[in-house]
Structure formats: C-alpha cells, structure tokens
Specification:
Helices cover 40% and strands 19% of the residues. It is α/β, with parallel strands linked by helices and 424 residues long. Helix 8 links the parallel strand 10 and strand 11.
Length: 424
C-alpha cells in the first residue's frame, strides 16, 4: 500500500524547467448546458430575467458540487427576438458547443422555429413559458402552462367575475392567434360574447386604433395576449383614453412582476393576470427562493412565473441526470417521465404521456407595489392537456398549418420585421 502511494505521488508531479507542477489526481470536465433567450429586441423585457433565474439554479447546483461530480457550465446565446436567430443559436449550441441540454425560448414563434433543430439532432429543450398548447414533442419538456392550466380556467373565472362581453387584444403571432381560438371556443360554450378581436404586430407601438375600438364596443373585460414591450404602449394608451380597471378590467396572459417593473404601475393597478406562480405565493419554499434570487441579483429585483418555471426546469433535468448517472440525451429524456420537484409555486411533476408539467393555476390582481394579490387558485396541481378536446388533434394541426403558410412559412405575421428592428 505504501509503495502504491509513492507511485501515485510521483505520477502526480512533473518537473518542468526545474519547477515542480502538481497535477490534480482527478479532473472532470464541466457539463455544458445552453441558455437560449432574447437579451435584446422587443422580448428582452421578459426574457433577460428568465436567464437570471436559470443561472441561479445552475449556481446553486454548482455550490453543492455540480452533477455527477462535475460543474455545470452555462453558455448563453442571445436570440435577439428574431426567430431565425433562435434556430441558428440552437444549432450552434448543439453542434459547436456540444451542450447536454438547452433551456430557452419565450414566444411560441421561437419555440416552433427551434423545434425542428432539436428533432434533427435528437436533443432536448426545456421550455419555461405558458403557451397555446396544440403541441407535444419528445424533444421538449414544457414547464410552462398548457391551455387548460391557464387560458381555459381563466376565461371561466372572467366570465363568472368580470362579465360576459369579451374583447380580445393580441400580438400577431402563433400564440395569441391560437390562444384566441381556444378562448372563442370556451366563450361559445359559456354563452359569452366576443365583441372585438384585434391584433398588433409584434414589437409595434401602434395601439391607438385598438384602444378606440375598445372604447366603442364597451366590453366587460379585455383578454390580453400582447407580448413584449408593446404592452407599455398599450396600457399607456388605455390610461390616456380614460379606460380604468374599474370601467373595463384587463386580464393579461403574459404580464408578470418583471414586466410591471417596465410599466407605469399607476396604469396597471387593479388589472389582472393569470399564471401558475406569483412572487406572493405564501410558502417557505417560495420565500427562500425569492430571498436567494434577491441576494444574488439585488433587492429591487422580482421573481415571476416563467422565471420559476425555468428555475425548477434546471432541477428536474439535474435529477434525471443523477438518476441515470449520465448526460446522454436519450437516457435523460426517458428519465424525465414522472420526475417531480417541490418548486416555489408548489409541487410539479412531468406527465409521462405528453412531457408537460402538472401545475397549480392562479389568478392575481395587480397591487400598487407591483406585486399581485392572489384572488383565485386551483385546489391542487392540474393535469396538463395540450390539445383542447372540442376539436380533433388533426383539426388543431390544420389550424396551425394554415397560420404558418399564411405568414409565408413562419410563425409570426411578417408585416413588420422584428429581425430588421434588431439588426445593428
């Protein structure tokens, strides 16, 4: 035994130019992971904070020794709010950086653009944002809400609590178009009336005509699926037109605590938003999460739903890696089935049929401090159903295909070029 120790010590030392170099007895390369989000452009208002939450989870795991005795090395790529850039970024992360997994995307346009890349290379994406559903892929873990975990129950709550006359306002890309199709089906079942449906090009600030139509139709509630910084212009114009939440409340599907930091809170107070998580969730797990996030990024920072979904997505992936003792994509993907985690928003687990997560549904009312009073919550985590059952899956796919071809084989209305807006 003594002789073996001497040999190991000798092999661990090299003499280079008269200097002794001590070699580590064991070195393990880091595990590379990709983070693909918009750090610039119209979606940066939402996505930069999701990057921060993803990095927080990675830092926490590294502080505990990493995974499989290896540190996690994040590689961040800017999608620039431009769908081809997302696809190029995904391919670069997979083929050049050799990452083991990618955490990313916000808009459905970006997710649908990268989906063929992950399928081509048999890879894995964690997608952290509520969306329109109408999709399931073995190459994507959906940690955001499916339609029955946000859109559908919120339409029912709005009908019961805010009124039967609904106005739909939306960005013009695949998520809002599909979400509104689902909303209109739900409204028909409830005998609610859709009095207006208007679309604004993604990234546009041209909102006056839409607000004038809201004034003219006098709905009981506006259901808002605008994404990105168009919301700043929209709520400013609502306020300027004298539309207050007491007169016509707005229920938003893509405005959370982080977006409120970029909006004039006096224009937002007492409007509503629907999510699975709010910073005000009153649990010890969440309070500790918020504290750790603020300690890392600043006491003025806030947490929100996509950030929480990105955060626990990292932990779900790490658990699957530990279970399989490998980062090999096929084995990790198989191990994702029925993974669970006590997330800040409550217990979540991956459905083994569709790769979506079971989640609690919540509705919040905006406060003057930029936080939400939770006014409704589901009693327990809701099973994800990506395809609303009132149409056949083939009919939903045809609906999406028709949108895609009508926009020139892309997932957003090209009436204004987001790519052009973001090109230096």
């Amino acid at each position: 035994m003594k002789k073996q120790l001497i040999i190991i010590a000798i092999l661990s030392c090299l003499v280079i130019g008269g200097w002794f170099y001590i070699m580590p007895l064991q070195t393990k390369p880091p595990i590379k992971v990709g983070i693909l989000h918009s750090l610039t452009g119209t979606m940066a208002i939402s996505e930069t904070a999701v990057v921060d939450a993803t990095l927080l989870a990675i830092d926490e795991l590294n502080q505990k020794g990493g995974i499989l005795g290896r540190k996690i090395e994040p590689i961040v790529v800017d999608g620039r709010s431009d769908w081809p850039t997302f696809a190029n970024g995904a391919e670069k992360l997979i083929t050049q950086e050799n990452v083991s997994v990618v955490f990313g995307c916000w808009t459905s346009a970006s997710r649908k653009t990268v989906k063929p890349v992950f399928e081509k290379y048999n890879h894995l994406l964690f997608y952290p944002v509520q969306y329109e559903g109408l999709e399931q892929s073995p190459h994507i873990i959906y940690t955001g809400a499916a339609p029955n975990q946000q859109i559908i129950p919120v339409v029912k709550w709005s009908f019961d609590n805010l009124g039967k006359r609904i106005f739909l306002v939306a960005s013009d890309y695949v998520f809002p178009r599909a979400a509104n199709a689902i909303i209109k089906g739900q409204a028909m079942a409830l005998s609610a009336k859709v009095v207006g449906e208007e679309y604004i090009l993604l990234g546009s600030r041209d909102v006056k005509a839409v607000v004038q139509k809201i004034l003219a139709t006098k709905p009981d509630v506006v259901l808002n699926t605008i994404n990105g910084d168009t919301n700043v212009a929209f709520f400013t114009e609502l306020h300027n037109a004298g539309i207050t939440p007491e007169k016509i409340p707005v229920m938003s599907f893509s405005i959370a605590e982080n977006e409120l930091h970029h909006l004039d809170i006096k224009n937002m107070t007492n409007h509503y938003a629907a999510w699975n998580y709010f910073q005000t969730v009153n649990t010890k797990v969440n309070q500790d999460f918020v504290k750790r996030f603020k300690n890392k990024y600043g006491q003025n920072r806030v947490t929100n739903d996509p950030m929480e979904a990105a955060y626990f997505g990292v932990y779900l992936w790490a658990q699957a890696v530990e279970d399989t003792q490998t980062i090999e994509v096929n084995q990790v993907r198989n191990a994702m089935k029925n993974q669970s985690f006590q997330a800040p928003g409550g217990l979540v687990y991956v459905d083994d049929d569709n790769n979506h997560t079971w989640k609690t549904v919540r509705i919040g009312k905006i406060r003057q401090d930029g936080q939400f009073d939770i006014v409704w919550t589901s009693e327990r985590p809701v099973q994800p159903i990506p395809y609303p059952t009132y149409r056949l899956k083939s009919e939903w796919h045809k609906f999406l295909d028709d949108l895609y071809t009508s926009w020139g084989n892309q997932w957003a209305n090209p009436g204004i070029s987001v790519e052009k807006e973001n090109t230096p």
